[in-house]
Structures are given as structure tokens and as C-alpha cells.
Amino acid sequence: MYKYGGKLSGSLLNQTNLNVSLHVRSILASRNLQTGSGAASAGNEPTNVFRKRKFIPQKPEQKAACDLPQEARVVICGGGIVGASVAYHLALLGWGKQTLVLEQDTVAGDSPWCASGLAGRFEPSYTELKLAEYSVQLIKDFTNKGLPTGWKQVGSLNLGRTFDRMISFNRMKSCGVSWNIPCEILSPEQCKEKCPIIEVNDLLGGLWIPDDGVCDPHLVCQTLIEEAKRMDVRVVEHCAVKKIRSERGKVTQVDTTSGDVKCEFFVNCTGFWAREVGTLSKPAVKVPLKAVEHHYLYTKEVEGLNPLTPFVRDFDGGIYFREKDGCILAGGFEKEAKVAFEDGFIPLSQKERVLPPDWDHFHDLLDELLKRVPALRSARLDRLTNALQAFSPDCKWIMGEAPEIQNYYVSAGMKTIGVSAAGGIGRALADVIVKGSTELDIHILDINRFLGLHNNRKFLTDRVKEVPGKHYQINYPFDEFKTGRNLRMSPIYPSLKEAGAVFGQTMGYERPNYFDQHDKKDEFGIPRFRIAETKTFGKPHWFDLVSSEYNACRERIGLADYSSFTKYDLWSKGTEVVDLLQYLCSNDVDVPVGSIIHTGMQNERGGYENDCSLARLSEKHYMMIAPTIQQTRSMSWIRKKMPNHLRSGVNVADVTSMYTAICILGPYTRVLLSELTDTDLTPSNFPFFTYKELDVGLANGIRALNITHTGELGYVLYIPNEYALHVYERIFQAGQKYNIQHAGYYATRALRIEKFYAFWGQDLDTNTTPLECGRSWRVKFNKPIDFIGRKALEKQREEGVKRMYVQLLLNDHDHEVDVWCWGNEPIYRDGKYCGMTTTTGYGYTFKKQVCLGFVRNVDEQGNELPVTNDYVLSGHYEVEVAGMRFEAKVNLHSPNLPTKFPDKEREAYHATRDKPDQADLLSFVTKPQA
């Protein structure tokens, strides 16, 4: 136990112990009640052990505050700050009278002790930042109208103790240029000037963000609700949802403890309870969340404390604090969080969400607080609040339409900063519900980024111990979670691990990032499972290892595991599958059997919802290959956009887990594969960008695609899992004479960056069109079927693009000593900011840093003008890397990289830019092409 200057009284300690005792008893009592234990449990009846847990909403003791309507267009479950924001923004769009908010307790809650109140704009991604930016502006607007919010623009002071932390601050400051966030790097002395109560002896500096502020989330929530009610939104308290009904895959009705309500849309904004509310429908909606304990320390009034004290975050100490009503409110994020209710029993009331304080668990953070704010040693303690906070498996917010049921929306996982997220998320969800889309690309937060495995309770329990600590850890490149690992593994995983693979994880798949022969076995001679780490902003320790793998792919043979890629089979009895894909895809997919077509699936704005390859296996059967992160998202999009007249005729199957994908890259791959199959692999029989079914070794039924997704010669073999290990061993044994070498994700990533290949989720998103990234030749405007997004693309073709995808090669950058580009760096043209990088990496052939990104043309008044080739090529470019600018050479076309083994097929294909003999991107002339 800790004492604050001897003023933590014994009576308070005794009361705390009493509360703990009462809490333990209450939990035991509730478990006995729910499982029917009591005397029966003494007999250890197996029914108690194996009984399946089921979420049963409590029946409120009080009746609903008003009569429940029989019908509403939108039903929002949850009267917290996010639910209030969704209701408010629906009302702004004219749906106030058609919106109903249901709350099983009272709206806005009854505990103002469970939030820090930080309203800041700087978030890890542009999407999160824009949502937070709108939230802060909304709070300011309410304040200016005289509505209660508790807003104070005090700024945020972020402290750094280490060299790498200061580099991360400089990277944030550079991002601030791109994201229009004023910020300033401070010395320790300047940090002391901003906040005199802090100790700065161990600091190297800080980052000052003047536009950040603090507010009272309780007041903001009440204001949102009252404003929504003023615009005719109905709010019913003490009313719990019992069941969400659906027909033909769409929401139809919500059953509650006060009656039933017919509706078109349902929004799950229950926060801490969102995962459990997801089980109240059939099919259940998976909302991967788990609660951990989070402490807030409140002092009594501190004499002389400046009411404009900034919000201070000591990242390396894991702590934060602010001034609140003359007192200090403090908290932090420990390296390993304490999971609450691991057994799956979730409290049903807001009061039960607050647990007794755990001083033993909080003591490390308390030590850091006392070190940073010496005045706390003599401050009088008011309380330590232990409030549960729900986190997603990847430490990001969750929002969007559920993949299981159409018109069922989710917004949850706001972590500890719901007030920073609520305004923007409420607006975005309201836009999607009313208008069908939102202007901001939100795929990074979309609930479709998860699989069923992410909702596994034991997985969540394991993962969320690590998640909260990520908030304040240095955001190194290619950061990996260490929990929830060894979950999805291809059949060749053991062989790859034995070969020295160091793994990364994507969508639960263990994927080799690179291979390291050093220390690959433990003391018993068993191959280790090793997780990839970078832990630097400069030259990484794996640089030479990846260089060797890269060279093998360019000049010999590299072998890479592509098993994590999303794989679908689509087929029909008639021509329905062709009609569907022609409607969904912007390219012409009605190609000869055996062809591979690369295409986008555009939305109504022309942006990419998916970027995929389609292999036509037969007249009525296609295989789709898409990025790993598209596994849930693609299926949801196809089902949502499938015309009614095709629903009964087209079959779509996710076959991702049925096939192991091995990619062999390099100039000797045709010779190698020819030794293992009887099929003629000569270019005349099996040309580039075509498909064949092969026998390899003793195995059959292998789908071979003559592409590599990196621009190198080679093949991707989609092997039925039972044959995977056999085929892998045959390839690797036969490849020894060609000095075959394993290659990881980092090497193939370097290959595609140098070849100017755009990837969905990194370079492409729902707002990026094919015309902006040099893929106009993949859009067939003359197709007989009117595909999704055609009108938007035709309009853009007429008006010209407002941004253009480019490749930049950094000059005078020393990769040995300078900070590397890792993405989100600002780009300058003739000294003026014009865009930012998306994907970056070291080019082992160029021997330079390579940046991919978008360039804009903005005039002095801030108006965006069309971007032309001449505009791009006539500028002088610089890229700012952690505060330092480097001159850069710009490329508009995929380069032909020098190789010892030139090949006409490889040199002729340009994935990102139009081919030289085709129409220029902006000439707006369509020419026939192969």
C-alpha cells in the first residue's frame, strides 16, 4: 500500500478491504445464481462444469421512462457517448423522428469518475485523426453555443526520455505537416515552462500540441442526448434489448423488456457490453472486445494548481495526468494489463463495471507519477477508481456494418478516449446509414477487418493483456503482438520454422517476415518460434538477411509462403457468375479460360473496395486472390452488392484455409518447375498471366498461376493442403542446384515497392481510384455491363485527377546512419507541401530509399487543381524524414530494373503505369489493348 504524505488514513484502507470482500462475495453469489450452483455445486455436478454461458440481459426494476414506440427506422442500443453521438448526427440528417435510443440503465451513465477527458487530435492513422478532429471541433462548437462540455484548450505535453522516443516525436511533427496539426519539439527546459510541476531531469525533450484540450465526457454525452432529443429523437431508459431479429439477412425487429420495435437499422453502441449484445441475434454478430482494469487516481484540491495545466503524457513512464476542478486526475497504461471477468461472466449494470481499486497492480504507475510530479507526495488522495475499459485485439476502434447481418451497425472499443472518437464516429455511421457511404475512408476501423478467431474468448483474454500497453510504447515499424500467436499455420510452417523463419502475423496467420540461421534452435535442438522485431527507425538488424533473400528472387530462385492470401471460389451453373463479376469489377473478366485478370472492385465513388486477381478456371468458375486483410471484407462486399436476380445462381466459397500457396520467384523458376511436372511450361503454352492445373511431384490438382504479385518471373502454386508438404519438399530439393533460398514478406515487399506496385490497405483505399494510381488501362468503360463506380470514373476521366500516385527515390540519404522512411512522410514540391508517402522501403537494386505516395496540386487559396504528368515531372521534390528533408527523384512509370537475366515477359508488364504504347493516363483516350 502507498501513503500520500502519511495522509492515506487507516479507515480508508479498511473500507477498501471491506469493499473487496463484499465484491468477492457478490461475484460468488451471482455465479451461484446464474449456474444453479449452491448445494448442487458441492456435489460437483458435471452440468455446472460444461454448461454453456449465455448472455441474458437483466430485466430493469424500473419501467421504461416513456412508452415504447412500435416502430422506428433506426434503433440505437446504448445511451453512452457514442450512442448519443450517432443519434445526434442522424437527427442532423433529418432522421430525428425516426430514431430511437434504448438504454437499460440511464443515458450518460451515473459515474463521472471513469474517463480522463482528453480531447486530442493526434491519432495513429489519418482516419482516426480525422474522426478525432471532428469530435474536438464539435465539442468546441457546443461550448461556443453555451452548452455544457467542460472544454478547456490547455494543450497536450508529451514527454520523451529516450533517443528513439524523440525520433518518434520528430516523425509525429512531420506527420503534423501532412495532417495539418500544429506541434512543436521542446527541450526539457521548455517542457518545464509549459508545466512547472513536472520533474525534467531525466527528459530529452517533448512534443507540444497546442490545440489539444480536456473536457467532461459526462457533460458532453448529456449535451449530445439533449440536442438529439430537441431534434425529436426518442430516448427510452430502463429498457434492455433481448433479441435482434432479422429476415433474409437484414435487421427487421428489436425485442426489448418493454416490448418489441420494428426497425430497418440497428446500431450496437453498448461499449463494454457490445460483444455480449452481439450474441442476441441469429446469426450472432462477432464484436471482438475484452475488458481490462484501468485506474484513475483523483486527489483532493491542490493549492496553486494552474487551471490551464496541460494534459501531460509521459510515454516512457506509461502515465498521464491533467488538472480537473483544481485537483489532479492521473492514470496510465501498464505493460501487462489485468483482464477483468476472464471467466466470461459480464456484469449487467454500470455500477458493477467499477471494481474496487487494486493498489498492488497500480503501484508501478504510482511510482512513475511520484517521480514525474513530486508535488503528488504531499497531495491528499480523494480516490483511486478502477473502471473497466474494453479493448479490441489490435488496439483500434471498431465501427461499421456487421458482416453477419445487413443494416446491423457496430461502434465499440473506444478504449479510454471515447470522447475523442464519439463525434467523428457518430457522424460517419450516420452518413453510412442515411447516405450509404461516408467521405472518409474507414476501412482501418471496419469490423470487417476481423475473423471469427478474433472473437474467441480465450484469444481475447490472452491478447488484451498486451493491448493497452501499446498506447504508450514507441510505435516502431512492423510492430508485432506477442500474444495470441501460433494460431493459423500453413502445413509447411514447421519446415519454414526449421529453416530459420522469423514470423509476423496477419489475420492470425503466421507468415515468415525473413529468415535468420543464427540461434534458430533452442538448447534442446528444437526450432524456436521467433517473432520479428525491428526496434529502430534506422537501418534494421535484418537488412543484410533480407538483401540476400531479395537477390535470390531477382537472380536465382526465392521461395515464399503466400498461404495467408485471401482465396475465394466463385461458380454457377449458367453465366450468372460472369454477370456478377462483370458488375462488381471494373476490368473485363469475360476472358478466355485459363486467363488471369487483375481488377479492382470499385464503390460508387470509384474507390477500391477490393483489389484482386481472378483466374478463370472454367467457363463458369473463377478463383479470386485478394490481400490477406480482405478475407472477411470481400465476402461481405460481394454479398451486399450481389443483385437479387443472381443470389440463387452464384456460389461463393472462402477457400483460404483449403490451399497452401507457395510462390517461387526468379529467372530459373520455369526450369525448376519443368523438372517437377509433365506440363509444357514454355511461354507459348503457359504464358505470363495465365493459369493451369498441374501435377507437381506425386501430387495433382495444383492450381498454378504464372504471376508473382511482385513483378518478378515465377509462379504461385495453390496446393491442396494434404499435398503441401510433399510439394514444398520436392521444390526445395530440386532447387538446390539453382541455389534456391527462402524469402520472407520483407523481401517480396521490397520487390514490389521498387517495381511500383500498389497494394490495397497500404496505397489503395476506398477513396483511391484506378485513374489516380495509373491503372486506367484496367478499367473497361466499354463493357456491356454497367459496373459499380463507372459513372464516377467517367466523370473523373473528363475532369482530370486531383492527385497522382508517384514513386520517389531519395538522393543523399545514407541508409547506414540516417533515419529511414517508414510511411506517412510529407512530400514537398518546389518547397511546398504537396502530399505524403504511403508505402516505403529500401530499394536493394536502386540502393536508395524508395517512397510510394500521392502528389496533389493545391493553389494559394487552397483549391485542388488537376494533376497532370507535366505538373508532376516539372517539380523539384523533397521528402521530410523525422524533421530532415532529402531531395528526391520522381517516377511516373514502373521502372525496368537491371538484371543479369533480362526477360521480355517481365520487362513488358507494367502493373502501376500505362504501357508506353498505350494512351497516357490523362489523355482520356481509350485504346484497345491485349
UniProtKB/TrEMBL annotation:
Residues 804-890 form the Aminomethyltransferase C-terminal domain. Residues 493-783 form the GCVT N-terminal domain. Pfam families: DAO (PF01266), FAO_M (PF16350), GCV_T (PF01571), GCV_T_C (PF08669). Residues 436-490 form the FAD dependent oxidoreductase central domain. SUPFAM superfamilies: Aminomethyltransferase beta-barrel domain, FAD-linked reductases, C-terminal domain, FAD/NAD(P)-binding domain, Folate-binding domain. Residues 73-431 form the FAD dependent oxidoreductase domain. GO terms for cellular component: mitochondrion. Keywords: Pyruvate. InterPro entries: FAD-dep_OxRdtase (IPR006076), FAD/NAD-bd_sf (IPR036188), FAO_M (IPR032503), GcvT/YgfZ/DmdA (IPR028896), GcvT/YgfZ_C (IPR029043), GcvT_C (IPR013977), GCVT_N (IPR006222), TrmE/GcvT-like (IPR027266). It comes from the Eukaryota. Belongs to the GcvT family. This is Pyruvate dehydrogenase phosphatase regulatory subunit, mitochondrial. It comes from Musca domestica.
